[in-house]
């Protein structure tokens, strides 16, 4: 007759088997925990939140505009010819603002590119950097600022 | 850090929303859960489905898991319940423990002189023995001997009184011995 110990030994000696290699990945994908799925979810979340916040901001701006120009809007509804003049006026204002913004961008780009295009500015920049470094060295000479907070 | 500590840390990280941590838990336990399901269902494809379902259920119920208890019996409990539901759906009479419903002979074992060697015989016969035992006896033997669980742990896992577990184990062992002896006699004849 087989003893309890023998039976225990026989069963405990049975091997463990492994599931398919992609088992963990499949479970994680099923739960929406895989890296790709999490990235996709984060992207979707960001896109939806951005769309919602931009819509809210635009709605708020539109409501403010409507409240400030309620008279004009009513007039535009009642007299479409005047409305057309208003539309032209706002379009002109928008174009002027866009031109100003583009001019600003062009100016900034020019300032950044200047030392590269004209070498004398590069020398000026280098001299300014040297002077600034010397000033910082003189000011921090007593070392108070460089002392550690705790020994 | 011990295995239990790393497991607990993985559970905490998982509850904190770290998806990679659940991957660690799966990798720690997948072989045991899959092997248990395979031996219960006798089919690797069904076993893989059950193992997958076990981890999905475990993840969704992780919030209710008591962290002072070991994770393995908890996972085995989920796997066991899924296996029993699966067997019940497939053939309800399979959950019977009437010895008459299960043949004494082990299936597909051609006699041969080399099989008479004890160790080899038992190693080969063990899987077949489990396959021919009633599922309720099979799970009791697997949980006690393969998963090293105590009677109290098995009783908690099966939701049964300890006395019932002891009786079931006693009958399972008696039937297993009978089957193994019958097979050994058949081969050595």
Describe this structure in a few short sentences.
The complex is a heterodimer of chains A (151) and B (189). By secondary structure, chain A is an all-alpha fold.
Descriptive account of the structure:
The complex is a heterodimer of chains A (151) and B (189). Chain A is built from 6 helices and no strands. With 151 residues, chain A is an all-alpha fold. The termini of chain A are far apart. Chain B is built from 8 helices and no strands. Chain B has 2 domains: 1-94, Rna Polymerase Sigma Factor, Chain: A (Orthogonal Bundle); 96-189, Orthogonal Bundle (Arc Repressor Mutant, subunit A). The interface between A and B is medium-sized, with 28 and 38 residues.
- Quickly count the helices of chain A: 6
Q: Percent of residues of chain B in beta strands?
A: under 5%
End-to-end CA span of chain A? 77 Å
Radius of gyration of chain B, Cα only, in angstroms?
A: 18 Å
CATH topology-level fold name of the largest domain in chain B: Rna Polymerase Sigma Factor, Chain: A
Helix and strand succession of chain A?
A: HHHHHH
Count of separate structural domains of chain B: 2
Q: Describe the biggest sheet of chain A?
A: none
**Percent range of helical residues of chain A:** over 70%
Q: In CATH, what is the homologous superfamily of the largest domain in chain B?
A: RNA polymerase sigma factor, region 2, helix turn helix motif
Oligomer type:
heterodimer
């Amino acid at each position: 007759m087989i003893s309890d110990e023998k039976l225990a030994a026989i069963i405990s000696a049975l091997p463990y088997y492994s599931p398919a290699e992609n088992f963990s990945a499949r479970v994680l994908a099923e739960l929406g925990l895989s890296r790709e799925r999490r990235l996709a979810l984060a992207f979707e979340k960001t896109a939806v939140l951005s769309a919602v916040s931009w819509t809210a901001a635009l709605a708020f701006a539109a409501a403010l505009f409507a409240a400030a120009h309620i008279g004009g809007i009513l007039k535009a509804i009642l007299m479409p010819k005047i409305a057309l003049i208003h539309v032209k006026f706002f379009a002109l204002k928008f174009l002027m603002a866009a031109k100003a913004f583009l001019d600003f961008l062009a100016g900034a780009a020019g300032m950044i590119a200047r030392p590269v295009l004209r070498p004398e500015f590069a020398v000026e920049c280098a001299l300014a950097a040297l002077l600034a470094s010397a000033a910082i060295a003189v000011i921090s000479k007593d070392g108070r600022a460089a002392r550690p907070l705790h020994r | 850090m011990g295995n239990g500590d790393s497991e607990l840390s993985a559970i905490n990280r998982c509850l904190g929303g770290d998806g990679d941590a659940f991957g660690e838990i799966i990798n720690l336990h997948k072989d045991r859960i899959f092997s248990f399901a395979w031996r219960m269902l006798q089919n690797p494809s069904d076993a893989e489905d059950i193992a997958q379902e076990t981890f999905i259920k475990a993840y969704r119920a992780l919030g209710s898991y008591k962290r002072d208890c070991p994770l393995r019996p908890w996972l085995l409990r989920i796997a066991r319940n899924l296996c029993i539901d699966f067997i019940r759906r497939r053939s309800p009479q399979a959950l019977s423990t009437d010895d008459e419903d299960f043949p004494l002979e082990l299936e597909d074992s051609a006699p041969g002189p080399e099989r008479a060697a004890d160790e080899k015989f038992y190693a080969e016969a063990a899987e077949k023995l489990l396959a021919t035992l009633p599922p309720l006896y099979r799970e009791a033997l697997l949980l006690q001997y393969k998963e090293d669980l105590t009677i109290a742990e098995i009783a908690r896992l099966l939701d049964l009184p300890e006395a019932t577990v002891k009786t079931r184990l006693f009958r399972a062992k008696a039937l297993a011995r009978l089957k193994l002896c019958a097979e050994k006699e058949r081969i050595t004849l």
